[in-house]
Amino acid sequence: MVRNLNHDTFLVIRYVKRRLTVLIDIDGKHEWRDCIDVPGVRLPRGYYFGTSSVTGDLSDNHDIISLKLYQLTVERTPEEEKRDREVFLPVVDNLKLPGMEAPLEPMSGLALFLIVFFSLVAIVFAIVIGVIVYNKWQEQSRKHFY
Question: Residue 24 in contact with residue 3, Cβ under 8 Å?
Answer without folding.
Answer: no
